[in-house]
Amino acid sequence: MQITQLNIYPVKSLKGISVTQSELQEHGLAWDRRWMLVDAQQRFVTQRQLPALATVEVALTDEYLVLSHPNVEPLSVPLAEPEGNLRLVSVWNDHCKALPESDEVSRWLVAALGEQVQGFSMVRFATEFTRAVEEDFLDGGAAHTYFSDGYPFLVATTGSLDALNQALVAGGHAPVPMNRFRPNIVVESDEAWAEDRWATLTEQNGAFQLALRKPCKRCKITTIDQHTAAVPAPAEPLKTLIELNTQPSLKGAHFGQNATLLEGAGSVIRVGDRLAVATRDA
């Protein structure tokens, strides 16, 4: 098997960036979920509340994070850390320390998306702070992440997407692209749902090893077109995922596996890397 896609999402819930390689870090791929938007109460804001966030494009240069939207001129945010007092912001039940970006970013967001984002600001994860991953699925280990929902990596497979799309089409619905699931690492696999039995993924030469920890429960973001922010009716693919019941012991819809890094921090992961799999029942 080999890696067919690598994706990073520098700003949580804005558009992702497909890359051919990335540095592996314990908290995720380089620059992944380093920023996020917060409301006036310093709570995280995502496409769950505001699907229009999907229309904001993101790019990285050597010096800037660049935000783009059809309504306004692009905005360049320096990669150098901003000056200012640390804020306490929340992601789900976690409280994280963050640095606020300038008011110019907030004004740009309003110009791009309208009054619905009035009062929102963008913050950057404070790297001197560590946000731990829940211990329940780490087999006694430890891991940390930035502003992801809970885990530093999300792994998905082509085989599972193919099976889901076959079920969608059979039910009279349109197929969905992989970007609905916003994975970091996409692995080529002919077998549907094989990743649910994988324990580890190891680069063929041993450069890195990932542990697959927990099925990823899916939310309404999977129903949002990641190009237009449109939300087609009915709420697919969630309904079909629930009917497929790929995780009989769990409630809800699941697709992909949350993962942590066991070995290889600082190494480079690439599209085309070949992987060896160890299964849970091996």
Descriptive overview:
- InterPro entries: MoCF_Sase_C, MOCOS_middle, Pyrv_Knase-like_insert_dom_sf.
- The protein is mostly beta strands.
- The chain has 2 domains: 2-28 and 133-279, PK beta-barrel domain-like (M1 Pyruvate Kinase, Domain 3), CATH 2.40.33; 33-130, no CATH class.
- It has 3 helices and 21 strands.
- The protein has helices at residues 103-113, 158-170, 238-244, and strands at 3-8, 17-19, 21-25, 28-29, 35-38, 44-45, 57-60, 64-69, 72-78, 87-91, 94-100, 121-125, 131-132, 144-145, 153-157, 185-187, 198-203, 209-217, 254-263, 268-270, 275-279.
- It has an 8-stranded mixed β-sheet. A 5-stranded antiparallel β-sheet has the order 6-5-12-11-10. Strands 4-3-20 form a 3-stranded antiparallel β-sheet, with no helix packed on it.
- Helix 2 (158-170) links the parallel strand 15 and strand 16 (185-187).
- The radius of gyration is 19 Å and the shape is globular.
- The model has no long low-confidence stretch (mean pLDDT 96).
Please provide a brief summary of the model.
The protein is mainly β.
Key attributes of the depicted protein:
single chain, 282 residues, mainly beta, M1 Pyruvate Kinase, Domain 3, 5-stranded antiparallel beta sheet, 3 helices, 21 strands, 11% helix, MoCF_Sase_C
Topology:
Elements: E1 3-8, E2 17-19, E3 21-25, E4 28-29, E5 35-38, E6 44-45, E7 57-60, E8 64-69, E9 72-78, E10 87-91, E11 94-100, H1 103-113, E12 121-125, E13 131-132, E14 144-145, E15 153-157, H2 158-170, E16 185-187, E17 198-203, E18 209-217, H3 238-244, E19 254-263, E20 268-270, E21 275-279
